[in-house]
Amino acid sequence: RGLRLWLALHLHGVAAFRDALDEKLDLAVHAWQSLRTMPGLEVYEPPELSIASFRCARPGADPAAENRATEALVNGVNARGNALLSTTRIGEHVVARIAVLSAFTTSGIVAQALADIRAEAEALAAGPGDRACATTCA
Asked: Which of 7, 40, 76, 93 is disulfide-compatible with 137, CB 3.0–4.6 A?
């Protein structure tokens, strides 16, 4: 592993790696800013690294319903096959995460992921049954 890293640094220089990292950090901030404009989503602090965190939320809503809505949103986005979101727990809340980690991630891929998130949030707000979160994601 060390040889591969040394060779890449030797061939491309540290500046290339620094530029690539800056690009991913910028994409994470862009994702965070876009998520903040989506109704029904609570977006956590600006990313310090390359992960933007958010959840379905509505003032006064049942936390269990918000958690189900967040999990449904993540499952819906992942089922579309354009992006792979993950979840974690912060206190009693299920939190979704979009992580810009791969060297192959482009602004187009992030834009598609954000479009999928928006579409799933809208579908959850309008949809029937367990996917509905009209009180949490509207």
From this structure: 40
pLDDT, mean of residues 41-60:
92
- CA dist 45 and 80 (Å) reads 27
Prediction pTM value: 0.83
Return the closest-CA partner of residue 87 out of 71, 102, 101: 71
- Beta bridge mates, 42: 55
For residue 129, is it left (φ>0), alpha (ψ between -120 and 50) or beta? left
Angle at 123 between CA 61 and CA 35, to 5 degrees: 70
Cα separation, 45 vs 32, whole angstroms: 9
SS3 121: helix
